[in-house]
Amino acid sequence: MNAAIIGQMAISGALMGLVYALIAYGFQLTYATSKSINFGQGELVMVSAFFSLTLTNLGLSQHWGLGLSYGLMVPGGLIFGAIMGLVVERAGVRLALEQKSEGWILLSIILGLFFFSAAENIWGRDDRPFPTPIPEEPFHVLGLAIGPREVAVAVGVLGIMGLIELLKRKTLLGKAFEAVSADRDAAELMGISATRTVMLSYGLSGSVAALAGILVSPITTVGPTMASAIILKAFSVAVVAGLDSGFGVVLVGMFLGALESLASFYLGSGWREAPGLVLLILALALRPTGVFGKATIRKV
Amino acid sequence: MLLVEDLHAGYGASEVLTGTTLAVKPGTVVALIGANGAGKTTTMRAISGGIHPTKGRVVLDGKEVQGLDASAIARLGLAHSPEGRKVFGPLSVEDNLLLGAYSRLPRFLGYRAKASADLDRVYDLFPKLRERSGQAAGTLSGGEQQMLAIGRALMARPKVMLLDEPSMGLAPVIVQEVFRTISRLKAEGITLLLVEQFAKSALEVADYAYVMERGRIAVEGTPAELSRNERVIAAYLG
Amino acid sequence: MKRILLLRGAELVVFGLLAMIPLWVVNPYALGLLTLLAIYGILLIGLDVTVGYLGQVNLAHVAFLGLGAYTAGLVVTKLGLGMAPALLAALAVGLLLGGLLALPALRLEGPQFALATLSFSALSTTALNELEGLTGGAQGLSLNRPPIFGQVLTPPLFYWLCMALLAVVWMLMRNLLASQWGRAFEALRDSPIATDAMGVGTYRHKVAAFALGSGLGGLAGGLYAFNFQYLQPQSFTYDLMIILLLGVVLGGRKSLWGAFVGASVIVLLPNLLSNRLLFQVFSGLGFAAALAAGLQGLYKKTTRPFQALAPVVAMGILVVGGLFVPNTEDWRKAIFSLMLFSVVVGLPEGLMGFLAIFLAKLFRVPHAPLPEPADIDAVLPLRPSDGTPLLVIDDLKRYFGGVKAVDGLTMTVRSGSIHGLIGPNGSGKSTVVNVISGLYTPTDGTIALRGVVLPSGSLFRVAQAGVARTFQNLQLFGELTAMENILVALKGVYQSSLPMVLFGLARGEERRAQAEALALLELIGLRDQALTKAKDLTYGAQRFLEIARALARKPDLLILDEPAAGLAHPDMLQQIAIIQKIHQRGVSIILIEHHMDVVSELCDMVTVLDGGRIIAEGTPEEVKRHPKVVEAYLGQPPEPQLDGGPAPQPA
Predict the structure, then answer these.
(1) How far apart are CA C195 and CA A237, in angstroms?
(2) CB distance B107–A173 less than 8 Å?
(3) What pLDDT is recorded for position C648?
(4) pLDDT of the residue at C3
(5) Which helix or strand (DSSP H or E) is residue C515 part of?
(6) Is residue A300 part of a domain?
(7) Domain of A175: which CATH number?
(8) What structural domains does chain C harbor?
């Protein structure tokens, strides 16, 4: 009995953990090209979810059915996320990187705050349901109840990560991406524009954030604060796994998801956030480059 | 093919180049020699766009390119094999070479086929690289990395190639091999600007040479002329 | 003296005026705001220690405010103690938890540090919410303002208490920041590696600074609790943290006055937002300022287009948005973010930074006169060079993965000698130096100085043991003056304890330190540049200064890592002369150098490395003729003559 409950909690937690993994993967994308991440990524998740909700509710669902309008909304949401990512890159990151300062940390926080306030006023402060054609009733495998929406999360997360990894490994553009990450100046000498590569990474990272929002909204509902807890755990996953291992974030994301679901069961739902935060501080203290990250050598 | 006029450039407040002027004619090898810190590498970087010159002109094949980003200048036909080689360590040897031809290849698929002729040419020039084509570039020895850096620059089919300190940190035997390669490329008609601290070897392959001192050209001439110049002999060939 | 009088005068006037306010202002609302100003002043001074002096984005300060507030509240409500113990407990909790967080977090930099502090904040909010038995959870915690020393605190009295504490904090911080400590904070932001190598102890200074800042946050939290007399976990969240950062950045980093200005802005902001007319006037002024500054920057080409235009756009949105938005209160986060954005992009040095430049132009207060240089014999006593073994390296190995950078090195450096270390690039010279100086931990082998094994893997501890070094790629403290660079490293002069420093009782040794620093500057010929910032020195002078800074450690062994790299010929001659002068004083030196002529001129003994192993050792003349050296390093000796076009390729 007890084992079944633990298994149940662990599995549904692990599936949710894939959302953290996806957002963390978005951090890795920008970190690879520019050694920077968007501290306002949570707001990007939230704003994109709201935008997608608006697209779904445009009235098309009455005429075309939910399935079709959902299908049309997803690309719209992804494009919106990409545009927001580009805005962050242009307004918050580029200048600081040119000046080799860490101003981008503060600026990306500030931009996030602006998006938050804008969303609050445009879409309201209330949480709203997100319609989806995917049913809610769980199906049973080996005695475990599994929600189709959670499966959709898993499929979406692994699908897009697979696609981007394919892009990175199989196309010349992907190799250029890695070249910028390995040696920005040398990449420039090959005719690869580092600025455009960084823009591309921020665009992709924005899309990834948008997809995370679209996938998670049917489960959590949409509201201005929907991502504030998720993003902290995504940070944890990114740091614990290291900022350069796509495989690592999936593992750590699922682990953390399972852990917190157990923590909220045994310690009370308020402590849900605690394992991620403790894990993050511990990981930073013990292995700052992450469990799956590469160690660096100090040079003078 | 490449013309540099009254070039001024530096890092922050300190000006390293104080009016460098030089020219590279099509199909010639030009050497740039001088003491450590004279500004040779800075000249190369100012030409290829790694730093923006504060004054002066750089003309590549009739187009003014000073102030453009390095990637834009590279797309106009300049290949710069930088000091310290700077190969992309985590990427394979073949990927390094393919990226050398980045501006000529399709971005997504089919790039390998389009580049196969150039790849073969580089592999013929450096058979070692063919053997190691799947290996991560960072695991190559210094000499092999230098071959890769030269090969990567050749992949661009550049109008002008800049080669900065190809002998740096290499054993003399390897250095000789590097210079044999340069002679061979010269025979094939490459246009090359070569920076080298081994002045003697550089003069042996060059058609023309410039000697840099404190940010500007102090002496220039054919290798034969320079080899007779007392000052050059005392400072660089002695 | 005049400069000091001016600064102290301004402080006295401002605090005097602030102290007198309750005598004629009886409006409780205004007095409440002023009380809050004092509390936020303390809070921001604490935050400025990490954000300004350490240069790190600290997102945990709000947590210390909250923890301090709850500590004070609990001390009063649960333990029934008075206000003084409550405030002390709040301060102590801040110091303690700040230190505990700093121990892991300050191993990190930049984004990772920001993430660690952010997590701490979230964790602290979770704890305050969930420990319901103690904190009352989301219900909040009510408390009364107890009397202090038997005196019931009316609003004016509480105001005076807060102001008095702000004044004390201000004075202590000013003394601390003007001391060796403050200089160390600045130095370690420019080059943490160099502060360690100069024996300053980067890590412990950072931890101390963070704990201090957090302690002030805790103290401010205690006052906060007694001001509002009601606490809720959600008061201390991310939103407030951003406002605090706005205060520090807008006011101006690394400035007590900046923290004060920032605190004033934070206190006044809510009023600004609730009054529409005031908001429009204010945003209009902001827009005009951004426009003027942007145009000036573009015209003079001092700023990039983005830097000039982005604040104008942001303030423009603020002005236009203000006309259409029904209620500015609803948009307060957006308004904060637009303001903060404009400041961070357009005025990175903040209002006080800007004003300081302006005031400096207006008053032109000269620097206090410098003392006469001390006698160099007293600073760097002549030592006998007896030729006994000083540094003994035995079978040293350092591998990086599969690469054997140093592979079994055994060598001895004799006291009073200049020992050259040469070899091709990648031969392991730099690795040897980095292992000796403690940057790398050796894979195997020992290094002993005067028979005592050197600590391994810690720049700081090796520096303490008497080894000083310079760096191939300069690691000066760019924002500090030439003299301050030396003062940071100076050994044996600063001995006052921290309390003495805090109460400003350690000024005498500052003069002595300056005299010693000037003597060292005179040695390298830079005495007249003592007050020039290191980053503004010529490249050659920067190289000389690194040597003088290393000498300030009064080291037993000095390691010079390519001191002539990139030097033009005249500078190189001067560098050689400097090294000879040092040598004559009996300082033992390891010299890594590429220029064979420099090596020949200076070295008593030369070790040649290739592939991490020694291939030759001897006097410069012996080494130059050694066949292996010729083969691996020097190359073939030039042929007698070389004319008539390209010679045939050697096989």
Answers:
(1) 33
(2) yes
(3) 38
(4) 63
(5) helix C507-523
(6) no
(7) 1.10.3470
(8) 50-236 (no CATH), 382-480+533-634 (3.40.50.300)
> Which strand ranges, in their side-by-side order, compose the sheet holding C389-400?
C403-414, C389-400, C444-449, C452-453
Name every residue in A having a CB less than 8 A away from some CB of B: 170-173, 175-176, 178-179, 182-183, 185-195
To the nearest whole Å, the CA of C130 is away from the closest chain A CA by 6
Mean pLDDT of chain C: 86
What region, left, alpha or beta, does residue C399 occupy, with left being phi > 0 and alpha being psi -120 to 50 degrees? beta
ipTM of predicted assembly, 2 dp:
0.89
Residue A299 has pLDDT above 80, yes or no: no
pLDDT computed for residue C634 by the predictor: 65
pLDDT at C204 over 60: yes
The confidence band for C643, taking pLDDT boundaries of 50, 70 and 90, is very low
Cβ atoms within 10 A of the Cβ of C84, count? 11
Cα dihedral A178, A184, A185, A191, rounded to 10, equals 50
All structural domains of chain B, each given as residue ranges with its CATH number in brackets, are: 2-88+158-237 (3.40.50.300)
Which chain A residues contact residue C114 at CB under 8 A? 39, 105
Of the candidate ranges A20-34, A242-256, C33-47, C100-114, the one whose mean pLDDT is the lowest: C100-114
The answer, for A137 touching chain C at a CB cutoff of 8 Å, is no
Where in the sequence is the domain holding A64, given as residue range(s)?
A: 2-286
Instruction: Encode pLDDT of C222-271 as tens digits.
Output: 999 999 999 999 889 888 898 898 899 888 888 889 999 999 988 988 88
Total domains in chain A come to 1
Q: What's the rounded Cα separation, in Å, for the pair C406 and C394?
A: 12
- Give the Cα-Cα-Cα angle A66, A69, A70 (nearest 5 degrees): 80
Query: Using CB atoms, which residue from B69, B82, B91 is nearest to A175?
Result: B91
Contacts 24+ apart (CB under 8 A), C325-332: C325/A121, C328/C273, C328/C274, C328/C276, C328/C279, C329/C273, C329/C274, C330/A120, C330/A121, C331/A117, C331/A121, C332/A117, C332/C273
Q: Answer whether residue A193 is part of any domain.
A: yes
Distance set, CA B27 to CA B149, B185, C563 (Å):
21, 10, 40
Say which amino acid occupies C200.
Answer: V
CB B104, CB B154: distance < 8 Å: no
Q: What is the pLDDT of residue C387?
A: 80
